[in-house]
Amino acid sequence: MKSVILLVEDDEALLEHSKLILENHEYKILTAKNGVEALEILETNDQLPDLILCDIMMPEMNGYEFFNKMIDNPDWNLIPFIFLTVKDSPEDVRFGKMLGADDYLAKPVNELDLLASIAGKINRGRKHNLWSKQIRSHLLTDQQVEISSDKIEEKKTVIVFLVVWDDKIGPYLKLVYPKNAKLPISVESIGIQLFQAAGPMYGTIDYYAAQGVLFRVANIDMDSYLYFSTIDDEDARGGKRQIMIAALAQRINYFESIRISEILEDFFVENIEVQEDNIKDLWERIGEIMTSM
């Protein structure tokens, strides 16, 4: 069976040229002239594409807006996505990758490079689909299903956890919600690894100025937004206790990470100390913003 590519491009000449090249290499091509048409195809077509190749500057709905809507849909968010555009400044490329796109190719692109990227992304996308199904089948415990399987699904299986630095033993997991969340690797191991990764990212482990980062946890194929800060603690060195709060989910896009950061900043203003009751509230608030965008 031929692999299906959705080609989204408002330049008709370029659209037809790209379509011809891809069809000559045994791909089945669906076409759209902007993000609105592309969403209609995803909603109505019987077969989802194996890959989306998308321009950025388009009328009605540009590529960034289309990508943001696409990855918020659990039926579409694992489709490999390549931006193909004349916006090739380092800032544009960095922004495209921060959004979570699989590749960002500048026009005019070498035909062989394009075909190689497409083939690689389709193969990897199929593997990710298999892994994702296996991970999702193990993420929920019976207790979580009793809480509300629909509610958990709406929140994209968000897990929120708190890792605290201890001057004697180093980082340790203090709180997690939901408590019985299951992952291929323990939440404690993930939390400690992410906390320890802060050193290389920031140069030194110093979180006196709160800061956050969107981080891909490759070994479990999930995203995490990490927020590092300190709380006052007279028993800690310097009177400050280093902490990390992380939101872990199947996919967190750039726009969601901005909202999560705002929620966490407000959270630390409202709460002197992180406790079990307010970390549950934090989980609720993060889940709500991830389903509202």
- Summing up helix and strand content along with how strands pair, one would put the structural category as alpha/beta
Mean pLDDT over the full residue set: 76
- Count of domains: 2
Number of strands: 10
Which CATH C-level class of the largest domain is it? Alpha Beta
* SSE sequence, one letter per element: EHEHEHEHEHHEEHHEEEHH
CATH topology of the largest domain: Beta-Lactamase
Measured as a percent range, the helix fraction is: 40-55%
Shape: elongated
Radius of gyration using CA atoms only: 21 Å
Into which percentage range does the β-strand content fall? 15-25%
In the predicted model, the low-confidence regions spanning at least 5 consecutive residues are 134-156, 199-208
Q: Outline the biggest β-sheet.
A: 5 strands, parallel
Query: What's the helix count?
Result: 10
Order the strands across the largest sheet as they lie in space: 2-1-3-4-5
What CATH architecture of the largest domain do you see?
A: 2-Layer Sandwich
What is the straight-line distance between the termini? 35 Å
Describe this structure in words.
With 293 residues, the chain is of the alpha/beta class. It has two domains: 4-136, Response regulator (Rossmann fold, 3-Layer(aba) Sandwich), CATH 3.40.50; 142-292, Beta-Lactamase (2-Layer Sandwich). It contains ten helices and ten strands. The chain has helices at residues 12-24, 35-44, 63-71, 90-99, 111-139, 142-154, 187-196, 198-202, 254-270, 276-292, and strands at 4-8, 28-32, 51-54, 81-85, 103-106, 159-166, 170-177, 211-217, 222-232, 240-249. A five-stranded parallel beta sheet has the order 2-1-3-4-5, sandwiched between helices. A five-stranded antiparallel beta sheet has the order 7-6-10-9-8, with helices on both faces. Helix 2 (35-44) packs parallel to helix 3 and helix 9 (254-270) runs antiparallel to helix 10 (276-292). Mean pLDDT is 76; it is low at 134-156 and 199-208.
